[in-house]
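Q: I have 389 residues here and want to know how they pack in 3D. Can you give me a structure?
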Amino acid sequence: MRVLGMISGTSHDGIDVALVDFTLTGDTLRGAVAHTASTPYPAELRKRLAAALPPAATSLAEVCELDTLIGQEFAAAAAASVEAAGPVDLVVSHGQTVYHWVSGGEALGTLQIGQPAWIAERTGVPVLSDVRIRDITAGGHGAPLVSYLDGLLLAGLGGTPAALNLGGIANMTVLRGPSDLYAYDIGPANALIDAVVAARGLHPAGYDEDGRIAASGTVDQRLLAVLLEDPYYRLAPPKSTGKEHFHGDYPARAVASAGVEVSSADLVATLTELTVRTVARDVLAAGVDTLVASGGGCRNPVLMDGLRAALPGVRVLPSDEFGAPADDKEAIAFALIGWCTAHGLPGSAPAGTGARAPRVLGSLTPGAGPLSLPTPLAAPPKALTLSTP
């Protein structure tokens, strides 16, 4: 079964896609990653999206228009992938998260936009979307859903391995035994850095390319101490967060609270160190011996060198070594969720999200013809192997 996974993450910079050709042999699922791509949002659309995110006020009219415009961008990206790599059986669209409702440590709702009907109409292929909410209705956080993929990928490592994703938000899956895992959102990875870079016009693409801005600055220890006092870090897993908490105004409020004056470079350096400190603290507390890293933060040498220096006894590897390219792992994870749903299988790890039990995820939009699904499977795969060309 050929499944196209699609996601725009909390950095809201564009759409990542991964086409995975799945084959089940016994209880091992094999996934050949046949195609990957990343399509930036048009500058004006990204600007509108950023302006609508918390803590800004917005209107239902703007949400409706963004839902359509983002859906059309996802449809174009899906069509381009099909044209480049051949037909697919299912598209899985995570869409764009615009709000993740957490109150009192409990996830109560989540909203991803990017109307899937545009994808179905453009490609003629059924589309699975709205994949997080079913886990939330079962008492989970709907995140990090990538923990299901992580559990399968890390299963053969032994020791105490963990998978770290450095997207807009940093999340981690820790495997304590063959079927014993937990996962949660640690805190910001690129989200606050990107917000400062974009707001201050430090880079036209809106991120710290190769960590150059952070490398040119100095960490402000007073500001770092204020940032580390955020109550979120003291919450116990399972927990989840996003830009409704670590939003674009967050850095300026922290600077004001610290009573300091910092240059742009020093602010970016301090926010980068915040990610290093919070991630390293949790990795060490979990007794992790192998850390498999993915996400856009892997391209930031200041961040990665900082983590390696803070974790001298931990082997830090890119997820590429496990067949999941660091930039494409989340898109691959949603392709896997789609395969599971199509076969009537849960695509979540309750120990990773905090749900009462696993759930079959998502809502299906039919393609051009009748909706036809494979014969349901009685049991999920026990192992997953990924390969790239």
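Q: Anything worth noting?
A: The longest strand covers residues 90-103. Residues 174 and 348 are 15 Å apart (CA to CA).
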